């Protein structure tokens, strides 16, 4: 392995820019190229990092010389970038959600496994310091009730309100909370979701409520809406014998009184550990693609239940 890891980034939006800023701070990484279907966006981000800009991911891959690829595209654009990068035998970092559907993600996961390549997905909440503290406080105390919520506004991107392009709020946003629930409570055995009425044709549900039954016996709910003027709440409240925890991206509240702030380095750690894996160093990659796929299956089950108004049972 070269002393410098050359990374290509597919996508040049806000999330891609965040990763580019973090990666550029590592002494053993260089941003070799940035691709976006909107050329001026690729050019603007590339110029900030002294890298080359490309008008398509295929042009970036054809240029060669990469050690790994970040795929930071909108939900509807997943599939071809990952497949093409894997055909070049390149390790993948993929931003969530994995896709708008399940089939695309399943195919990518199978190809990563077949090629035995390093992978990671941007569930950076797994690297929160306060998540480790929450797990310590819950040790030996099974969670019996979990209340998840993502109460927010509509993000300022034109694809977000369309089901076919975003996959819906559960898949695109609340997937973070579902991933947190899997970590703190365990796997989900059944979901039953209902959406609010009144969505325009092709538009996402503006509010969803779901009941979750966990395999370990806990009961749970998930509430999501994009009707707020700004982010009101996003996180997970869990109740176990003798302790209540309320965990979000920035802080952990214990028993409604003690507030523990997170150190704020999760978005750095998620990139650092992937780079370590690519370089063949000891790495703490907490969400490889196959692990993120389990959360994606859960999010898709909630979305499917909301669409059919029927319970969905998950297998395994």
> Which structural class do you get from the secondary structure elements?
alpha/beta
Strand order of the largest sheet: 14-13-12-11-7-10-9-8-15
Strand content: 25-35%
Radius of gyration over all CA atoms, rounded: 19 Å
Mean pLDDT across all residues, rounded?
A: 97
Main sheet: strands, sense, barrel = 9 strands, mixed
Tally of alpha and pi helices:
11
In angstroms, what separates the terminal alpha carbons? 38 Å
Name the poorly predicted regions: none
What is the helix content? 25-40%
Tell me what the structure shows.
- This protein is α/β, with parallel strands linked by helices.
- It is 35% helix and 26% strand.
- It has helices at residues 14-24, 39-49, 57-63, 80-87, 103-115, 129-138, 163-166, 169-172, 175-184, 266-278, 289-308; strands at 5-10, 29-35, 52-54, 68-71, 92-94, 119-121, 143-151, 188-195, 207-214, 219-225, 233-240, 243-248, 251-254, 258-261, 312-313.
Give a quick summary of the entry.
The protein has 316 residues and is of the alpha/beta class. The protein has helices spanning 14-24, 39-49, 57-63, 80-87, 103-115, 129-138, 163-166, 169-172, 175-184, 266-278, 289-308, and strands at 5-10, 29-35, 52-54, 68-71, 92-94, 119-121, 143-151, 188-195, 207-214, 219-225, 233-240, 243-248, 251-254, 258-261, 312-313.
Set down the secondary structure blueprint.
Blueprint: E1 5-10, H1 14-24, E2 29-35, H2 39-49, E3 52-54, H3 57-63, E4 68-71, H4 80-87, E5 92-94, H5 103-115, E6 119-121, H6 129-138, E7 143-151, H7 163-166, H8 169-172, H9 175-184, E8 188-195, E9 207-214, E10 219-225, E11 233-240, E12 243-248, E13 251-254, E14 258-261, H10 266-278, H11 289-308, E15 312-313
Parallel strand pairs: 1-2, 1-4, 2-3, 4-5, 5-6, 7-10
Antiparallel strand pairs: 7-11, 8-9, 8-15, 9-10, 11-12, 12-13, 13-14
Helix pairs in contact: 5-11, 9-11
